[in-house]
Amino acid sequence: MPSPSDSSRSLTGRTSRSLTHLRVQQTWLQILLVLGFIQVILGVLIVTFSLVAATITPSAKIRHSCPSWAGFSLALSGLVGIVSWKRPLTLVITFFTLLSVLGVMLSLAGSILSCQNAQLVKSLEACERERDSCVCCQARSEPLPASCSQRSEMLTMFPNPDCRSIRVALKDLLFSVCGLTVFSTIICTLSAVVCCIQIFSLDIVHVVS
């Protein structure tokens, strides 16, 4: 039969382990909160830059490379991450994990599209005003056609007094979206990993307690 001192030491040991696991859990939850806020901010920025870029040009190719859909998904994922900090339920954290994995795939697709088309807009440096629009094409040293509209690769933008500056603005917006989506891919990957660790630590706490 165990003595009272042995029972007391055993209880103290279990209490100490429970407190340690609780502190670890709170630390991971705080990390989830930070990652959730970052996802919300990145999502809002991606949506804002994408929508602004889409108002500059009627080109379907450029509009499709503005991944506002990735931004909305990212913002939703971040909100769930913030909720998971307030209500650290396994179901909520699992949902945040799934949304973060979805965010990785959408952000990766968005980064590919935005980066490719940002490079395309950067290469179309020769801009001119044609009727009710701005048209840009590649500048070449050999004799050129009468206008950019006769080129195979060109960019059409909504009318603006300075076509060159609006092209630069579109290029900067697309490169900004490119950088944001790449960073979002990294953040969503970290969020998914942290969620898996948090779920594992919750299971340990339940076993110990």
Number of strands: 3
Overall body shape: elongated
The span between the termini is 23 Å
Oligomerization status of the protein chains: single chain
Membrane topology: Multi-pass membrane protein
Protein name: F189B protein
Transmembrane segments: 28-54, 66-85, 91-113, 173-200
Keywords: Membrane, Transmembrane, Transmembrane helix
How would you characterize the overall build of this protein?
This protein is mainly α and 209 residues long. 74% of the residues lie in helices and 7% in strands. It is built from five helices and three strands. Strands 1-2-3 form a three-stranded antiparallel sheet, covered by helices on one side. Helix 1 packs antiparallel against helix 3, helix 1 (4-54) runs antiparallel to helix 5 (163-208) and helix 4 (90-123) packs antiparallel against helix 5 (163-208). The radius of gyration is 26 Å and the shape is elongated.
Q: What's a concise summary of this model?
A:
The protein is mainly alpha-helical and 209 residues long.
Please describe the topology of this protein.
Elements: H1 4-54, H2 60-64, H3 68-86, H4 90-123, E1 126-130, E2 133-137, E3 154-157, H5 163-208
Antiparallel strand pairs: 1-2, 2-3
Helix pairs in contact: 1-3, 1-5, 3-4, 4-5
Family: Belongs to the ENTREP family.
Transmembrane segments: 28-54, 66-85, 91-113, 173-200
Main location: membrane
Note the main attributes of this structure.
209 residues; mainly alpha; three-stranded antiparallel β-sheet; 7% strand; transmembrane helix
